[in-house]
Amino acid sequence: MTRVDDPISTAIAAAPAQNDDTLLGDSWLLGFDTETTGTKRDDAIVSASLVLRNPDTGFEGDTVAEWLINPHHRMNPAASKVNGFTDTFLEQNGEEPTQALANIATAITMAQDKGIPLLAYNAPFDVRMLSGDLGRWNLQGLPERLLVADPLVIDREISHRNGKRNLAHTTEYYGVDPHGDFHDATADTIAAVDLIQPMSRLYPQVGALRLGELMDWQRQAHERWLVSFNQWLVSRGRRSINDTWL
Fold first, then answer.
1. Diameter of the chain by CA atoms?
2. What are the residue boundaries of the structural domains of the chain, listed by start?
3. Which DSSP string do the residues of 35-48 spell out, in sequence order?
4. Taxonomically, which superkingdom (predicted)?
5. What angle do CA 30, 64, 70 make, to 5 degrees?
6. Strand 118-119's sheet: what is its strand order?
7. At residue 111, what are phi and psi to the nearest 5 degrees?
8. What's the CA gap between 215 and 20, in Å, rounded?
């Protein structure tokens, strides 16, 4: 991938390199979120946001990049109700997908090369959507081995709380005030990135996770959650599910 000359790429290039010993609580992060035409694997991204977070400056020092994309794919009416996008609006205002998707993937790859985790709430959804779109348009894919931080997986492992665990409820639990409305890609990205510091304060073991152990820790946490969730499903006469993280 070639580097694009834009603020997010410039900021990533200027960020320090990190290594396996970097602590999650001290780490730079590249937040990522998408809004899509639907939730199926053949759906497409209509908007995306990347937020580079310097742990020393917090929200005030964020570098933000946003994309509005014409997916050349019909909006699912249910998804349109949630994110507010219509086919007509996207056709008239969206960027062509090839350049937008290439720029997103380039920025993520640059951050990965510096050891900066890609942070996304329920990360498999956004990563798989982006990978699907890159493949659909015959673009270079993401690195094979991604370093990802997923606040949903982390929260399930440490908080053991009742109630919903969507982004809105989780940010409320950790005392995070959103910057904008949920189901806006940028507001959701910032909210997800904002979770790491209060998680680290309330549960110091989160901030003490080293980047070199982060992926295995999250995979194991997801597996433990899945066992518990499937036991709950079966106890209510429902089928268990097969589900993998990244």
1. 55
2. 7-212
3. EES-SSTT--EEEE
4. Bacteria
5. 100
6. 63-68, 45-53, 29-36, 118-119, 148-149
7. -65, -40
8. 11
Give 93: exposed, middle or buried? Use CB within 10 Å, 0-12, 13-18, 19+.
exposed
| Side chain identity, residue 146 | L
Reading the block at residue 73, the tokens are 């794919």
Cβ neighbours of 14 (radius 10 Å): 11
Give the tokens for residue 63: 């570098």
β-bridge mates for residue 107, sequence order: none
Topology of the domain covering 7-212: Nucleotidyltransferase; domain 5 (3.30.420)
Cα separation, 234 vs 97, in Å, equals: 42
As a whole number of angstroms, the distance between CA 72 and CA 133 comes to 11
d(CA 103, CA 97): 10
pLDDT digits (tens, 9 = 90+) for 143-191: 999 999 999 999 999 998 888 999 999 999 999 988 877 778 899 999 9
**What predicted TM-score, i.e. pTM, was given to this entire model?**
0.95
| Overall size of the chain counted in residues | 246
